[in-house]
């Protein structure tokens, strides 16, 4: 963790004409191990601190540095100089607080040894191989991230939190009838021993099984069950519909629909600071606002949006603690403060996947979708997503079907959710800045292009 | 930056427990981002990235560490920590060879370095692009123009005695707009990007015309019809439709996919994998292209790699570690977004080589099919997908009407055998970012016009 004492001192005595300033320091200490076919193939360690700075006079400018040797004066001055060419009215609103210092420590903050990471990878690989003799290759990644966040500002805000997130991913290759198939699944946990490998193995075996000997599917509208992993892939992009910023500027397909029914009775969406199915937990956002538990959609009704200080200010309400930076993939450092979820998910119910399939009777079980980021237009809500699945007849799984495309409009999809399953699955975003979840969903009508 | 003697000491420390290779990758990068939202400058940010990656190999095993504490004592500590993770009992310590400075010319020449230009001139560019969007005559609900410039300096030294460096400069406008037509809205973004300095914006008409066309295309897509459903021939236009090759086979030819048995091209070198019309090349040396550089991120000079020649698989893309795992030399393909990633084999500028077929005949001889003029992103793998953002329906050999965006997907190794026409006119593209294990790397993917005899089409929906 960067020593921000010098910054704090400087913030308390800002020279004119700088009126306000804020520093958000994010540190990730990472240990990672890749275990391939019974041996450690790659290991890595890292320790990087990023400093995001904003300074205001009449307006607000931004600066970012990884150069920890830079003097606070230099960095804050650079941010201030940037503010001088900004044209929008007013400056950013910063959080205010009388709190002297609040340090939020995790309940469990052990630094893992590589031996303990290796042990987990061995357990995972061994269980995977025992569960399926057709598997020829396995690659298991185990990662431990020790994350520290620190927000200080010239209004006296001084917040610090420390978390440890563990991540496991297993990728396998299996051969059936002379053809090779791959499958992969990941999970996060708050402790290194917190992974449910039995569930991971079962899920991977199903992904493999559902690819074998595909048959042709006629294009048309079908009743369908979207597997939880496919639901996650959709919501990994679709969470943007619930961004207060996008709502305000009209670039969300849900713009103007607060209070309206945007989904079926079975469709509810939450954004929360923590959840037992993921290792990610959040206390406050990058502006220092506490992360709220929110029911964004309740039984189909759009109740609320995710907000940061700026978007909330536009509608004269409080931030919901959703100020963030790493929203989607970007080749540059995203320094601008926008809106990101924390743990965003569609609510599960009590029904197992078998019960959903039985309820569906005849239809398609979409077991996997891919291409997370290019298939959905947030302004129109329209989507066209490549995927694969299996044909279901009388609630029983029959032949595999592949190279499918599901298409339609997200609002129509939300409206056609007849039931959600009990199998909530939560996955981290690639940039590890938030997590998105979904259970399997039975949908009344889905357009599927077959091959 | 530490001295050469200190670099040598860090490498020695890294090799102390028996690794056979050690490398230091120093990166310094300055970025500027100006955000022009609805016509006014909303934000301006300066970004300074500074760090080092330490990479150790022992046979086909690797250890990677990175830090942004560049002090000598910290780098020694990191090297010691990494060395403990890759012990080779009983072997003598490998020697760090004396450094020999190697200089390679970056194919992308820079005339005006970004730091030498006043921010007001850059703001003017962003505003001109925004104004072009407003002057296009299209009803734009919301529009942002982001100006970016980057100046990355990398220095690489390794235990083989290599000491080399590269400087990579890029300039980019990211255009984002939501266009409204009646009750319908559609959002899209597009990059105007070149691997050059501020001279990128010397000709105003180049980027203002680009901005106008960008919003006009969104409106056209809003008014498009859904594509018919079924199996049809598909003609892919020259230029950016080369994304097809990036996704259909490029990722599967990277050593990571081959060594990890996640590719349909494993053990197929010398075998027929595509139609005779198909020659696929990855070339990081081409001047003026976004994927070009003097060296890869392991200090190997970039090179022209022929991957498929007349339908026969001739090679894979290898970084140093991937090459070791496959028993092949590096192809100058070890790339990474920054020092926070270990290098892995990645594409640079990937293209389908020009053929001999007639461009017009390719469409005229189609009774009914799809003409793809513009493509968005995609996903690679055994089964790949690409996003059609500018597509048209062909009827009786003529372009009939525009279709809504859709996703095409297929198994790469199957569809490559169905290429029956490749045109003569090879056209490049601006390029974009490719995301994979070592982060986002700048690439281009391009081609001449080409045709696939049949692909399943349907589900056009996302604008």
TrEMBL record, chain A:
The lineage of its organism: Bacteria, Bacillati, Bacillota, Bacilli, Bacillales. Belongs to the peptidase U62 family. Residues 21-82 form the Metalloprotease TldD/E N-terminal domain. One of its GO terms (molecular function) is metallopeptidase activity. GO terms for cellular component: cytosol. Residues 219-450 form the Metalloprotease TldD/E C-terminal domain. Pfam families: PmbA_TldD_1st, PmbA_TldD_3rd. It comes from the Bacteria. This is PmbA protein. One of its GO terms (biological process) is proteolysis. Coiled coil: none annotated. InterPro entries: Metalloprtase-TldD/E_C, Metalloprtase-TldD/E_N, PmbA, TldD/PmbA_N, TldD/PmbA_sf.
From TrEMBL, chain B:
Keywords: Hydrolase, Metalloprotease, Protease. GO terms for biological process: proteolysis. GO terms for molecular function: metallopeptidase activity. Residues 22-83 form the Metalloprotease TldD/E N-terminal domain. It comes from the Bacteria. Residues 114-198 form the Metalloprotease TldD/E central domain. Residues 229-459 form the Metalloprotease TldD/E C-terminal domain. Gene3D superfamilies: PmbA/TldD superfamily (3.30.2290.10). GO terms for cellular component: cytosol. Belongs to the peptidase U62 family. This is TldD protein.
């Amino acid at each position: 963790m960067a020593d921000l004492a010098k910054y704090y001192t400087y913030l308390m005595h800002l020279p004119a004409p700088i009126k306000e300033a804020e520093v958000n320091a994010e540190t990730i200490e990472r240990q990672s191990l890749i275990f391939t076919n019974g041996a450690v193939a790659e290991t890595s360690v890292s320790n990087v601190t990023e400093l995001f700075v904003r300074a205001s006079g009449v307006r607000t400018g931004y600066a970012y540095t990884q150069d920890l040797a830079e003097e606070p004066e230099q960095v804050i001055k650079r941010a201030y100089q940037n503010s001088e060419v900004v044209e929008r009215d007013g400056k950013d609103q910063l959080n205010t607080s009388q709190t002297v210092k609040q340090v939020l420590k995790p309940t469990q903050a052990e630094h893992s040894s590589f031996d303990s990471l290796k042990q987990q990878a061995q357990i995972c690989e061994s269980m995977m191989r025992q569960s399926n003799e057709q598997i020829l290759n396995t690659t298991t990644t185990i990662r431990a991230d020790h994350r520290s966040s620190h927000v200080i500002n010239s209004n006296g805000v001084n917040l610090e939190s420390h978390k440890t997130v563990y991540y496991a991913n297993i990728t396998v290759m299996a051969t059936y009838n002379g053809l090779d198939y791959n499958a992969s699944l990941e999970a996060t946990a708050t402790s290194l021993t917190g992974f449910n490998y039995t569930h991971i193995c079962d899920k991977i075996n199903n992904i493999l099984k559902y690819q074998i000997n595909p048959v042709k599917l006629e294009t048309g509208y079908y009743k369908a069950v979207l597997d939880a992993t496919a639901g996650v892939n959709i919501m990994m992009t679709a969470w943007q519909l619930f961004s207060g910023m996008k709502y305000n500027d009209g670039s969300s397909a849900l713009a103007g629909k607060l209070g309206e029914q945007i989904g079926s009775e079975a469709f509810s969406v939450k954004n929360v600071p923590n959840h037992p199915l993921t290792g990610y937990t959040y206390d406050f956002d990058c502006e220092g606002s506490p992360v709220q538990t929110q029911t964004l959609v309740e039984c189909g009704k759009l109740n609320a949006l995710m907000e940061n200080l700026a978007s909330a200010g536009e509608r004269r309400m409080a931030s919901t603690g959703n100020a963030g930076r790493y929203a989607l993939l970007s080749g540059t450092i995203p320094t601008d403060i926008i809106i990101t979820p924390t743990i965003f998910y569609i609510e599960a119910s009590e029904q197992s996947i078998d019960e959903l399939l039985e309820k569906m009777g005849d239809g398609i079980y979409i077991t996997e979708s891919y291409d997370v980021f290019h298939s959905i237009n947030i302004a129109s809500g329209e989507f066209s997503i490549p995927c694969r699945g299996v044909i279901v007849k009388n609630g029983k799984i029959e032949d595999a079907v592949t190279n499918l495309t599901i298409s339609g409009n997200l609002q129509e999809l939300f409206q056609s959710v007849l039931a959600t399953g009990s199998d909530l699955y939560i996955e981290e975003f690639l940039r590890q800045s938030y997590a998105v979840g979904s259970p399997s969903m039975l949908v009344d009508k889905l357009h599927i292009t077959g091959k | 930056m530490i001295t050469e003697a200190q670099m040598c000491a860090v490498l020695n420390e890294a090799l102390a427990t028996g690794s056979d290779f050690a490398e230091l990758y120093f990166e310094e990068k300055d970025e500027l981002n100006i955000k022009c939202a609805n016509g006014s400058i909303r934000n301006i940010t300066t970004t300074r990235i500074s760090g080092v990656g330490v990479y150790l190999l022992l046979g086909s095993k690797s250890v990677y560490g990175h830090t942004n504490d560049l002090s000598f004592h910290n780098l020694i500590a990191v090297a010691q920590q990494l060395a403990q993770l890759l012990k080779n009992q009983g072997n003598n310590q490998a020697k760090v060879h004396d450094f020999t400075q190697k200089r390679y010319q970056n194919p992308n020449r820079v005339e005006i370095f970004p730091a030498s230009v006043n921010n007001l001139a850059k703001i003017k560019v962003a505003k001109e692009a925004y104004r072009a969007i407003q002057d296009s005559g299209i009803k734009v609900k919301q529009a942002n123009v982001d100006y970016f410039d980057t100046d990355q300096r990398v220095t690489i030294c390794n235990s083989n005695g290599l000491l080399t460096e590269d400087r990579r400069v890029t300039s980019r406008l990211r255009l984002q707009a939501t266009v409204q037509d009646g009750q319908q809205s559609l959002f899209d973004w597009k990059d105007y990007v070149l691997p050059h300095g501020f001279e990128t914006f010397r000709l105003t008409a180049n980027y203002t015309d680009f901005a106008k066309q960008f919003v006009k295309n969104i409106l056209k897509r809003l008014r498009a019809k859904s594509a018919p459903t079924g199996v049809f021939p598909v003609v892919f236009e020259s230029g950016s439709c080369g994304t097809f090759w990036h996704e259909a086979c490029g990722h599967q030819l990277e050593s990571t996919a081959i060594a990890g048995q996640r590719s349909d091209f494993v053990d197929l070198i010398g075998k027929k994998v595509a139609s005779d019309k198909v020659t696929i090349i990855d070339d990081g040396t081409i001047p003026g292209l976004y994927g070009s550089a003097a060296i890869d991120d392991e200090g190997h000079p970039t090179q022209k790699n022929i991957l498929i020649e007349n339908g026969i698989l001739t090679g894979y893309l290898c970084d140093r570690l991937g090459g070791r795992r496959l028993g092949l030399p590096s192809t100058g393909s070890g790339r990474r977004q920054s020092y926070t990633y270990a290098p892995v084999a990645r594409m640079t500028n990937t293209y389908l080589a020009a053929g001999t077929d007639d461009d017009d005949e390719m469409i005229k001889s189609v009774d009914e099919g799809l003409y793809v003029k513009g493509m968005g992103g995609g996903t690679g793998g055994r089964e790949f997908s690409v996003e059609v953002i500018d597509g048209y329906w062909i009827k009786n050999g003529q372009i009939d009407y525009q279709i809504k965006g859709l996703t095409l997907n297929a198994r790469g190794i199957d569809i490559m055998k169905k290429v029956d026409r490749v045109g003569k006119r090879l056209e490049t593209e601006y390029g974009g970012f490719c995301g994979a294990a070592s982060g986002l790397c700048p690439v281009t993917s391009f081609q001449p016009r080409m045709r696939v005899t049949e692909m399943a089409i349907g589900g056009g929906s996302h604008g």
